[in-house]
Amino acid sequence: MGYPVGYTELLLPRIFLHLLSLLGLIRTLIDTGFRILGLPDFLESDPVSSSSSWPEPPSMSTTVHHHQESSFFFPVAARLAGEILPVIRFSELNRPGFGSGSDCCAVCLHEFENEDEIRRLTNCQHIFHRSCLDRWMMGYNQMTCPLCRTPFIPDELQVAFNQRVWSESELLAEST
């Protein structure tokens, strides 16, 4: 009978609670500012579990001039690797003598459909959805297979590839 005992040592200090509230307000203001400017939602609460699919990256076969006008910046090596890697339909891969026998993309874990565009890596023969592998190359600047880390570019083409990357990089540097 009396008042319950309060455990003040377990409660957060009042100043800490005010600080958290202020940070939440600042986050809301920044998010609102981004939305007003038409920018995407950078402060997504849970990007991994969102039900929407990944956005399709823009086409990689762009010229240097168009590349500069684009709001997206893709690494030169990734763009050139995307031009080298073959894009085919999954239905074409199912013919005898093709493919690795995989039924799903190791990046997004979705099964391949006959009309899906896929990229078949020339060194290791792994296959991925075109958009998944393009995101791996462009978004993360990775030049190796997501599964086995084999380089995208075969050894016999590596010298020519490096020379082309250098020349493309020089063109970009001269035009800026």
UniProtKB/TrEMBL annotation:
Biological-process GO terms, alphabetical: protein ubiquitination
Locate the RING-type domain: which residues? 105-149
Please give the SMART domains that the UniProt record associates with this protein.
Answer: RING
**Keywords of the record:** Metal-binding, Zinc, Zinc-finger
| Matches recorded under InterPro entries | Znf_RING (IPR001841)
In its UniProt record, a GO molecular function of this protein is: ubiquitin protein ligase activity
- The molecule here is called Zinc finger RING-type
Q: Where is the organism placed in the taxonomic lineage, from the top?
A: Eukaryota, Viridiplantae, Streptophyta, Embryophyta, Tracheophyta
